[in-house]
Amino acid sequence: MKLKPKKSRSLSVRKGKIDATTIFTVGSQQIPTVSQEPVKSLGRWYDSSMKDTKRGLEIVELATEGLLAINRCGLQGKLKVWCLQFMLIPKLLWPLLVYEICSTTVEAIEAKINKFTKRWLGVPPGLTDVAMHCRKTKTTIKASDLGVLFFNTSRYPDVQPIHPA
Question: Organism's domain of life (predicted)?
Answer without folding.
Answer: Eukaryota
